[in-house]
Structure formats: structure tokens, C-alpha cells
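User: My instructor asked us to take a sequence, write out its structure as C-alpha cells, and then describe one feature of it. I'm not sure where to start. Here is the sequence I was given:
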Amino acid sequence: MARKAARKTAGRSATAKRPGGKSSVKTKGAAKSKAKTRKPAAPKAKPKPGAKRGGAQILSDQKPPANPTLIEVTRGEMVESRHRVAVAVVDAQGKLVESWGDIERPIYGRSAVKPLQALPLLETGAADNFGLGEPEIALACASHNGEPLHTDRVRRWLARIGCEISDLECGAHLPLHEPTMLQLIANGGDLTAIYNNCSGKHSGFLTTARHEGEPTHGYVRYEHPVQQRVTRAMSEMTGLDLSRAPRGIDGCGIPVLGLPLRAMALGLARMADPRKLSADRANACKRILQSVMAWPMLVGGTGRFGSTLMATLKGRFLLKGGAEGVYAGILPSLGLGVAIKADDGAGRAAETAMAQTLRRLKLISAAETKMLADLLTPPVLNRALLEVGRIRSTGEGRF
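Assistant: Let's start with the prediction itself. The C-alpha cells for your sequence are:
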């Protein structure tokens, strides 16, 4: 018992000392009273994003604000679906002219950056060496339907550079143009890589390899000189070191490089206004713009949004879509580049967002908007081809 009492007393003594040696023994009643009146401790301030603690950077756990809902799809009296979209409009000096949503988050540009990827075809002298004209340059930027107007030209192009369809490393898929697809199946034709929507771009890659005396096999690999030239050109145009960028593999087998929408728009703007570029690059940019705007149906084809709008409003802009809801615009009259990404990867959202952006920039008049209503705000059709809704702007963010 004596030892137990001693331990109890020692415990009280240990907890009753404050720094400085003063006793702070309290009665039970006093302790309860103190507990009732004690103010709660103020919450510790959260470190600011990028602040340092103990020499290490603290990363913010806060997510960036969600992209605005710019596009909606109606059916009858209801809005049935909504799309969140980010848009960047930039000039050739890098000034942000307009923006909606998170334009700094890296995205893959996919096929929307094909005009940038086509620069080495002209800068190396390969296009001139093999006598390529505007149709071939347009095809080098294309995601085509696989219609005869596309595949016939690609066949002749490959023969001109001493290559065969089997040299294309883009893989094969059925033509995107339904009548052409049905005709191919009905005729029992061979499904080859020439029908791949990227066969024109890959013919351009093969052309530069032939011109430079490089192996054609493996030209899709990141390490191949063909792709290294593309990476350098895109880095210089976007102002980023894309050798350090996130990397993946595109649907056609070439590397895809992650870059923010703002940087992508800058690269497009420098094509729109190439005055501060080197003479060779400025000339390449001008030829690419001229070729695509002169041959818009080669870049996509029948029924495609970009081809139809470019063909209708000739010479105003270069439009190029990509997979997963990416869209690019080069606007030479304004010296601007436009880059768009739909969060959910919906092409219908990216196309409608591009249409609304062009309207906002006054590149499509009110009269033309009315005339092109079914292209700019497409109808939703049922199986009987009756209109049951629309794809349209929500008007959010003055869009």
C-alpha cells in the first residue's frame, strides 16, 4: 500500500510542474472550471501552395476549378447532356486573348497538332525534292475519311517516293466515310493502311526519311530522326521543351506529347502570324496554311465539320480536329491560335465550342450563323432522321 501511494504522489508531482519549476497543482473543481472556460485552439493556417517546410516543397491538395460547362445537348424540352470544355485563344507573342477553364493542365494534342507536325516535311526540303504540291501538303495535315479522293492521292504519293502501302506503319481501319466503307466490303477489297485517316501524315514522315537517307522502318518510334525533328519543331513553336513532356502513343502509332492548351494555342498562333520566325519556318507555315485552306476536303472529307466550314468560308481559317475532344484553329487574319479540349473527349463538344469561338471572334457573321445553323449548332436526329434536339452553347462565361 505504501509503495502504491508513493507512486500516486509521484505522478501528481510530475504533472504539476511547469517550465520554470513553478507548481501548478489544481483541485478537481478548479480543473473542471478551467475546462469550461478554455477557448478552443485556433486552427493552424494551411501552408500556401508552393510553400516550403523543412526545405521541402508542399504541394497543394486543392484541385483546380472545374472547367465550365460550355456545351449542352437538348432532347425535346430538356437538356439531356452537358460537356465541360477548356478553350485558349492566344496571339503570336503569347498574350492570352480569351480563355475558358483550365488551360495550363497538360493534354495530348492528338491529330489537332498535325499542321505543326508537318513543318519538317517542308523545312527539310523533302516536299520540294519530291515535287509535292498543295494536295500532298494538305494530306500531310489530314485525318481523312478514306474516300477515293484521299486514297488515290496517297497511292500516287507513295509511288513517287519509292515506297509501298506496306511501308506505312499507321495500321489499318475501315474508311470513315460510310459509302466508301460499304463499297470496299461489297467488293471484297483488301483493308490496308492506306484507308487509315493518318495515311497522308505518315506518307509525309516517309518522305522526310527518304529525303534524309534515313531508314523508313521504325519511323514512328520516338527515337527515330523523323520523330525527333517533329519534337524539335513543336518545342520551338510552343516554347516548351517537349523532350521532357509526358509521352504516350497515338492511335496511328507515333508519339503524342503532353502540353498545356495555352502552349498549343501559342504554337498555332505562330503559324497564323509567322513574322518573327526564321525565313524557312515562316515560309513553311504559309505553305501549310495555303494548302489546307485551298484543299479543305482533303483534310477531312464529306460531312466533316472542319472541311465543310473551311470550304464554305474560304480562306478565313485552318481548322483541325483530333481524337478525344481536341480541336485546333489557326486564324491568319487575326494572328491568333485557338486550342480546345472537351473533358469527356466528345468531338461534338469540341466542334461546337470551336464554332462558338469563331463567332465570338467575329469570323462568322450573324447571317452566316443562320445559314450554317445545322453545322454550328448541329441537330440531334433519331433513327428516322427527324430532329429531336440540338447541340448548342450554354452561354456560360459569355461564351
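For the description part of your assignment, you could build on this observation: The longest helix spans residues 279-294. Try explaining in your own words what that tells you about the chain.
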